[in-house]
Amino acid sequence: MVLAQPSSASISDVRIVQETSAPAIDKGLFKLICKAEGTVNSRLWLKDSQFLSTSGRLIFSKNNETVSFSPVLQSDEASYQCAASDTNSSVTSAKYRLNIKYGPQQVTITGPDSVAVGQLVTFTCSALCHPVCEYKWYLNGREKATGESYIIGQARPVDGGRYTCMASNKMTSQTREAIKNLSVIGKGNRTHRKTEQIQLSLVRILAY
After folding, report:
1. By percentage, how much of the chain surpasses pLDDT 90?
2. Which of 25, 78, 115, 207 has the fewest CB neighbours in a 10 Å radius?
């Protein structure tokens, strides 16, 4: 919904600004201000061209000059406008795009749980983030690499263990992790060799 722009408006420079320079972070507090030059009798707020009304989370000041999000959520991401009016005219601001910063959420690691010695291993970490998250990889608590993927060209027994992907978002100052255990089976694996020896001993006993 776009309000008509009169040819000779006594109100001018209608615009939306945020209260502070801090970004809008999911589940945080956030406030928008409708500024205008001239004598303003009333203000209306629009979200994606539809009139915005108060709710349990959205609080308007007495003169509708500000709208407070308490808290702001991902569903609030949209284009906002403010229409300022006096007795003779109404002027609508340009669109203000509200982008919500969030995450990491739903951090997951995709990749195998077990591989044979010498096999290629590719782990990929993903998370819901805005902006895009940064990733760090740990093996048994020791940092190994950075980036979305972690690749082992040829798996060795020492590559087995507990892998952790730590996803972080600098804008929200939040971190989340996902964990996956990897077993490397085959020659050089002491546990595997011991199992083979036990099985061979049983075969010999049965043969007698």
Report:
1. 79
2. 207
